[in-house]
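Q: what sequence does this backbone want?
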């Protein structure tokens, strides 16, 4: 269980309960928690830029575990940084439902929840966009981004604590590499767990998608370094779990199985 669980719990729900953002499904400004009053459990995801690889990977896990989430009766809402076009593109690629996704173009909800802004070195003479890019590159190198390099290496070396990510008959397409069948990774050490290069291949597919559609996913690069957070509430609006991201590829307490916290509470 995340040690941050009880931190500032009353303020998180009250902040979210009065938040109004653009809903991707209809382009309307709506309360983020609209339709959530009867939820037995409410999962609210505050995402960074929708072109951030973290969010595409998070959405992939939600899609993978969608039947378990349904069985648990978990209601989901997400707020990402972007506009409606980036939200539509994100949902089309990840299969995340448009009616669950809202966008905050200026990361106002992130500031209200005091989420980590990321590295914020003020380089003289550079524009806000240029500063964000340079700070992002430093974070990718592990500076001001806790755990990022270790997580990158985990994607290449494999992880026996994590489940197998690509089915033997599944084919990974849309990367700079030739199409790869899931059974290919068996040669790297077996099956039934995350094999070497398996996660790195999925991340390569996400990277190819985002870089091929960069201006759609990231209409404003000012907020490139902004990190997100995960908040789980019970039926009374009490915060029962939270995770505040401290770096790139740090969107979960347990990156081997990012949604494990949902099935432990």
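A:
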């Amino acid at each position: 269980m995340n040690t941050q669980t009880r931190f500032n719990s009353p303020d998180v729900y009250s902040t979210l309960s009065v938040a109004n953002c653009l809903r991707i499904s209809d382009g309307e400004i709506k309360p983020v928690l609209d339709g959530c009053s009867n939820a037995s459990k409410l999962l609210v995801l505050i995402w960074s830029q929708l072109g951030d690889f973290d969010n595409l990977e998070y959405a992939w896990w939600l899609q993978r575990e969608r039947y378990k989430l349904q069985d648990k009766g978990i209601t989901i809402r997400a707020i990402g940084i972007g506009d409606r076009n980036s939200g539509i593109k994100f949902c089309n690629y990840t299969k995340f439902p448009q009616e669950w996704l809202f966008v905050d173009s200026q990361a106002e909800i992130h500031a209200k929840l005091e989420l980590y802004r990321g590295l914020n070195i003020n380089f003289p003479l550079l524009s806000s966009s240029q500063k964000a890019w340079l700070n992002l590159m430093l974070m990718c190198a592990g500076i001001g981004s806790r755990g990022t390099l270790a997580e990158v290496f985990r994607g290449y070396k494999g992880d026996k604590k994590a489940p197998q990510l690509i089915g033997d008959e599944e084919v990974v397409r849309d990367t700079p590499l030739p199409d790869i069948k899931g059974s290919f990774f068996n040669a790297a050490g077996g099956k039934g767990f995350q094999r070497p290069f398996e996660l790195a291949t999925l991340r390569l597919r996400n990277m190819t998608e985002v870089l091929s559609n960069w201006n759609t996913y990231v209409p404003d690069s000012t907020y490139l370094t902004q990190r997100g957070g995960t908040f789980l509430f019970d039926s009374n609006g009490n915060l029962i779990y939270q995770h505040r991201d401290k770096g790139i590829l740090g969107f979960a307490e347990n990156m081997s199985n990012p949604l494990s916290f949902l099935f432990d509470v």
